[in-house]
Design a protein that fits this description.
heterodimer, A: 199 residues, Rna Polymerase Sigma Factor, Chain: A, Arc Repressor Mutant, subunit A, 2 domains, 67% helix, globular, B: 65 residues, mainly alpha, 72% helix, elongated, disordered C terminus
């Protein structure tokens, strides 16, 4: 069983994949202990059904697909006991700060107008950008982030997100809008701000 | 005439469902003369792209592209 070509027997390769999985699961679940458990489950499930992998990247694709399903299961379970649409104070303060972007007639205040991010694709090639992106995701309120991640990372259709989390479509829309706007503002401030003035 | 605030909601929903013809027309009228909202739209497109890239970094190759 210890074929050096097989990534399963390469501890360093597995450890690296495991670290990445934990980071991803933590982002989704916001719970370090649970994230470790889910990753463990996913790895065991993957190993139990071990196939011959041509290499590290095939293995990685496979375990992340399993991890995704495990995370979805946990979110389903949690949604039975938590009310995702309940507004925590974090959500309220995010909404309040959104309101301050506008004048009385609901048009942008000039100082808050969304800025031109230039060629943002360039950013996607920079590791520093992804650190900021992670930090901004972590900065979103928990329930808001959960809905957003189901939609954007786990790639549920909006209707499925609503069904899974037992919220109405309009509620879902409000939450996704809150998440996107929160993320947009965080990136604008922390990454796209021109020149990062040292004031 | 849509306000900027309403436009942000429509642009977010446009990521989740196909807008109706009248919604699209109203949006275009607004966007034609509001560069803040045009930037907002580009930012929404960028967010979608970043999320896709984030996942494909995890689900393909070695993730360090």
């Amino acid at each position: 069983m210890s074929d050096p070509q097989q990534p399963w027997t390469n501890d360093a390769a597995i450890e690296e994949i495991r670290r990445e999985m934990i980071r991803f699961a933590q982002l989704q679940l916001r719970d370090a202990v649970l994230a470790e458990d889910v990753v463990q489950e996913a790895l065991v499930a993957a190993l139990a059904n071990a196939k011959d992998f041509a290499g590290r990247s095939a293995l990685k694709t496979w375990v992340f697909a399993i991890l995704r399903n495990k995370i979805v299961d946990h979110i389903r379970q949690q949604s039975r006991t938590t009310n995702v649409s309940a507004l925590a104070s974090e959500e309220e303060s995010l909404d309040q700060s959104f309101e301050t972007l506008f004048k009385g007639n609901d048009h942008w205040r000039s100082e808050n107008r969304p800025t031109n991010w230039g060629d943002p694709e360039e950013s996607l090639r920079q590791q520093r950008f992804w650190d900021v992106f992670d930090a901004c995701l972590n900065h979103l309120p928990e329930n808001t982030a959960r809905v957003f991640m189901m939609r954007e990372f786990l790639e549920f259709e909006t209707a499925e997100v609503c069904r899974e989390l037992r919220i109405t479509v309009s509620n879902c829309n409000v939450i996704l809008h809150r998440a996107r706007n929160g993320l947009r503002r965080c990136l604008e401030k922390s990454w796209f701000a021109p020149g990062e003035q040292p004031c | 005439m849509l306000s900027c605030k309403e436009v942000t909601h429509k642009l977010s929903e446009a990521q989740d469902r196909e807008l109706s013809l009248s919604e699209r027309l109203q949006l275009e009228v607004h966007l034609a003369m509001c560069h803040g909202c045009r930037n907002f739209r580009k930012q929404m497109t960028f967010l979608r792209m970043a999320c896709r890239r984030y996942m494909s970094g995890k689900l393909s190759s070695d993730g360090d592209s």
